[in-house]
Amino acid sequence: MTHTAIVAEQLHKHYKEKRALDGFDLTVPQGMVYGLLGPNGAGKTTAVRILATLVRLDAGRALVAGYDVVEQPRQVRRSIGFTGQFAALDEVLTGRQNLRMFGRLFHLTPKQAARRADELLERFDLVEAAGKGVREYSGGMRRRLDLASSMILSPQILFLDEPTTGLDPRGRNEVWESVRSLVAGGTTVLLTTQYLDEADQLAERIAVIDHGRVIADDTPDALKTLIGGDRIEVVMKDAADVPVAVKVVARVATAEPEVDDTSRRVHAPVADRVAALTDVARTLQDDGIGVEDIGLRRPTLDEVFLRLTGHRVEEQPDEAGGAGEISSPDTSRGATR
Ligand SMILES: Nc1ncnc2c1ncn2[C@@H]1O[C@H](COP(=O)(O)OP(=O)(O)O)[C@@H](O)[C@H]1O
Ligand SMILES: [Mg+2]
Q1: Atom 2 (ligand 1) nearest CA
Q2: Mutate to test the pocket of ligand 1, among 37, 318, 327 (most ligand atoms within 8 A of CB)
Q3: Domain count, the chain
């Protein structure tokens, strides 16, 4: 296995007049989690569906596990797993039954399917929940079961399309743990997300996608440095104190502070998190200025976009997502059928 896991060159895809992909390039080495970060409508799902042979490309070339997605779709499908934004689990069955069913679907014998189900329940920390009906599962448990079902055939490459969208923080953490254990096992993962934080937590490299094209491709650290790293945020008790806060924050910031007047919020990127927080808190307190809230936070996707593109995230109407995917679970699961 000396091939690159995924190579996409100048992929184009349009739906009527809408350009979903517009010259999409990506190279993913083996054994890495690669984050594909972008807002709703950027083209993430279209890209992973093309790579998973679920959607036809209009132009360009893509190799997955060394196989051409157009010329060799069967070989591609044998090499990949895919989990969509919405799991195709059977609510009535237990977790264990679901996994056995998928195993049978993928032509394992009943005995093999049972063994594989047990291995995966163990690996995704679902042993205790294995006998419960999926309808009783939390969001995080569902996503983990979905991950487990996409790993039945031990694919070399796994596509995860927004695996944590809609989960609470605990569910998100559970899924992150599962993804980490997958990578420890050598699987290459292409993970799409709308959260910079998630890409930062999981991915070794991040490609930022906007309007169907990759606009930045780097390590999480390099990206964060580019956009000015972590931010300090101060919320004033009194709107009249906002100008003072701007001055105080500006002293520790690496860029001009931004102000949100309605929420009396002042925020700016800082180089030294702790020193900046201590300095600002102390100065405001010494001057007897009322602070409602103060803290440090990571840059948001919106701030990444502002820096990279000069414009804020444009939320696009999500014609292909949401209800469409729920009503057609056959497209949200791998092409292994
Ligand atoms: N089946 C489809 N029919 C029409 N438009 C689509 C379809 N799938 C995606 N699109 C459009 O293509 C663009 C990219 O969509 P998508 O790949 O789903 O983005 P993302 O997954 O990043 O939210 C969006 O403008 C979306 O509305
Ligand atoms: Mg999507």
Answers
A1: 320
A2: 318
A3: 2
